[in-house]
Amino acid sequence: MGKVYERIDGRLRTFIEEQKIFFTATAPLAGDGTVNLSPKGLTGSFAVLDELTVAYLDFAGSNAETVAHLRENGRITLMWCAFTGPPNIVRVHGRGEPVFRDDPRFPELLEHFPGIDVDAHGLRAIIVVTAELIRDTCGYAVPYLDYREDRPLHARRFQREDDESLDRYFHKKEHIASSIDGLPGLPLPLPPLRSS
């Protein structure tokens, strides 16, 4: 029923790119640390960069657990479920890295996301994941769910922020600069999205 893949291509790539939501899972090295599981899903915020590398946009929010865990140990799993069509679950286990706004690679990586207005969402980083294990499972118990549209709330909330006000917002949040477990999170002050 389950299969291991050497690369993200063909039908597997098509399946991943067609899903409207995916999940990320990370954890600190400490055995008593907080495991983090996050849904991701704004249309246009995910890209397959090559057969072993994917990336997604990390937007403003009230914490930075994924960023903190990746900075500490790099371990991440991404998961997609088929909520329509034939049942399927795909997981990419790998090593992730947050590429921050002041990283020289940031502008080139950003070109992989032409379909989304990053200014409207408070873009913090681009998470790049290199696959180490790619596998699928049956997904027989995953329910059918219908996608209607992306929620407009995130853009409504963050499109009114500029770099300075977004930095102030992050400074007010308890778990942005450090994680729940005290690991370094998003580096602050927030660098500008675009250099002048």
UniProtKB/TrEMBL annotation:
InterPro entries: Pyridox_Oxase_N, Split_barrel_FMN-bd
Gene3D superfamilies according to UniProt: Electron Transport, Fmn-binding Protein, Chain A
SUPFAM superfamilies named among the record's database cross-references: FMN-binding split barrel (SSF50475)
A Pfam family of this chain: PNPOx_N
Residue intervals of the Pyridoxamine 5'-phosphate oxidase N-terminal domain: 10-138
PANTHER family associated with the record: PYRIDOXAMINE PHOSPHATE OXIDASE FAMILY PROTEIN (AFU_ORTHOLOGUE AFUA_6G11440)
Name of the protein in question: Pyridoxamine 5'-phosphate oxidase
